[in-house]
Each structure stands twice: as structure tokens, then as C-alpha cells.
Fold these 2 entries.
Entry 1:
Amino acid sequence: GAGVSQSPRYKVTKRGQDVALRCDPISGHVSLYWYRQALGQGPEFLTYFNYEAQQDKSGLPNDRFSAERPEGSISTLTIQRTEQRDSAMYRCASSSSQSTEAFFGQGTRLTVV
Amino acid sequence: GIQVEQSPPDLILQEGANSTLRCNFSDSVNNLQWFHQNPWGQLINLFYIPSGTKQNGRLSATTVATERYSLLYISSSQTTDSGVYFCASSNTGKLIFGQGTTLQVKP
């Protein structure tokens, strides 16, 4: 697509439920990144993929968080047994093989109640 | 890993004024980007500038890689320039963000 697309834009979920956040990168971009941004803070790295391979997951806060990109295009970030502290803006970015410049989607605002 | 520090944390300007935002990073980098987070929360790419100088309208940026800093210049500021400006850098693939500079431009 023309830009990075994330869905849903807003998600309200009850504590203890699982959520899946979707990211559709710019067409042809090989690298895909997930970030989390708390209110008043800068985005913090969670994980990234080159094609379908997860290259770095050092930023995932605990084992309730996981991500996949099975066909090297669309990616899903899954949070199991959500907690209130998981409430944040979740951002996805992608970059091409030609440049390290990253382009971000509009984000998913997750609220856990 | 890389550490990124931005200054000042907050900035209030009168419309028409000029400003300089600074970003210091702790290691050599192959990526440095400036973003503007608008009031709707979207991150807008301003510059991709691992080194050198670029200009885009009223905005320009300079990165001195050997001294590990980057500067974002805003000239003749407008109220629409308000928001948070982030610097982010990388040498491993993952961008590390600074804490941002919150800019308020008053009419």
C-alpha cells in the first residue's frame, strides 16, 4: 500500500483478554518494526523482522507479548492476558532494503480497562 | 546500546520566531531521523539525515556524525509547527528514540 497501515486504530479491552494488533507495511518493504509509546514518552522498541525472520525481540517486556510475520509481509503483535499497564500507543514501522529510513503507521491506541 | 538525548525538553515560541532543537547520540550511527508527532498522534518523517545537511522549506537539519549530534532548525515558526519533535538513531536496525522536545508556538 501507499503507507504503513495499522488496525484497529483504537482498541478497548478488558483486563485478562487477549488482543491482536495488525500491521500492513509499505509494499515491498523487507523490514518491519514494532514500538510501544506511553503517554509523554518517546516510542520504545519491541521487536523487528527482516522478511519473515524475527531478528531482535529484546524489547518485548515479557512472555505475554509475541509477534509474527509468517509470509514476510503483514505482521501481528499479540498480547495475552492483557493488564492495565499494557495500555499505550502501539506503533509499527517499515523500511526498504535500499535504506534504513523507517516510516510509521498511525498506530493502535490500546486501552485495557 | 545507543542512548539519545534531546534538548530542550520544552520550548515556547511566538509565531515567527526561529528555534534550534538538539539531539545527542552516544555512538556512531547509520540512521538518524527527525519526526514530528502531530496533535493526532501521527509520527511524520521530517528528515533522514545520518550525516550532512538537508533543507525542506522552513525546516533544515544538520548531523555532525563525528561529534555525535544533530540539530533541527525551524525558521519563521507557525502555530501548525506545534507538537513533539523526536530524534531517533540506530546502528543495529532498531531505532532508539529520544524523549522529545515539546514545542508550543503561540499566535
Entry 2:
Amino acid sequence: EDKVVQSPLSLVVHEGDTVTLNCSYEVTNFRSLLWYKQEKKAPTFLFMLTSSGIEKKSGRLSSILDKKELFSILNITATQTGDSAVYLCAVGSYNTDKLIFGTGTRLQVFP
Amino acid sequence: EAGVAQSPRYKIIEKRQSVAFWCNPISGHATLYWYQQILGQGPKLLIQFQNNGVVDDSQLPKDRFSAERLKGVDSTLKIQPAKLEDSAVYLCASSPGQNLGPHFGNGTRLTVT
């Protein structure tokens, strides 16, 4: 059965800290891995990764995929209180054409 | 670009009642999804449309849930009759193609009492 596991489940840090969120997966015929940020409303798209070893970067956020070890990390440097959210990882498969979501990592950044 | 629109934002009903949610995807997006997100969990796909055809509805509880996407644009999701365990946020998302990351609407928070 396809699955996506995120860790840690929750994380509490102070502003300025750097955090690393993990996403491991077991999916038949992997197509892509996506990261979303979810505050109180809709998940907002952050990154889509399809190739190993190529870092995607947007401001203080970056992500990389390892297709051999079947995981991805999302890094946030110099965290701010506005980074507080649930970060969701989702994996797509060529077999099913649907995204399988992990349960998310809840990040809380305190001033 | 206007985002995915959903209504209502909130709905409270009693068990065994029926409820319907509406979604208007981003213009030109052929693929539309309905997800159910229970508190503390990640979104779970209920049904995926490509234009007005169903691509995947394997996790839709068909005895009580139904969805349609007439004319390949707007979509409605209905629950009849509702159960307590249906309390969740129902997210609609759309994508220009099946292989691209979907954009989500703000969701409808359903509480069944």
C-alpha cells in the first residue's frame, strides 16, 4: 500500500532558528513529490520535485528529493512567526494519478 | 488569476440530514479534485474529475456521497445522509493537468452533530 510519512509530527522553535522537515514515502511508480503550507485555510503550493538531487529554493525555503532513499526534506532558515503552519507532503504516482498526503508537520515559531 | 472558489465556508447539520458543497475551479483547469481533511490528518482524495469525466472515485463512500461536474467546470459534492464521522473540511482543488500540483480552495468546514 502506498504511504507517505512525515516527521516530526510537531515542532516548536524560536524565531531565527533553522528547521528541517522530513517526508519519506513508499509509492509504486513514483511521479512527483509536492510540499504545501497550510495555515488556517487552504494548503498553498510550495514546491514540486521530480528529480533527485536538484534543490528547489524560494526565499528562506528550500527542498530536495532523494529518489534512491525515498525521502525529501524541506528546510526553512531564519524562521519567522509567519512560518507557523502545518507543512504537508504529498506524493503522486503514475499508477493512480492521485496525490497521497502525509499527516503533516505542525510548526510553531515563537518570537 | 482568481483562485478556486468554494461555498459555503461553514455548515452545521444534524446526522442523517443532507448537505451539498459547491466548487468553481480556476478558469481553464481541466482537472478537479474533492478532498476530505479530518482534523489532524492530511487531505484524502474522494474523487477526481478530468473535464466532466470521473478519473478516480475509489475512496468515495458511494452509499452516501455523490459528486458531479456538469459541463466540465463547476462541481458539487453531496452527502446524504450525513454521519458524525463526516465532520471534516472538504477541500476542492483544480489543476491544469493531471500531472501538475493542484491549487486548493479555502474549503468548507462541515460539522455533523
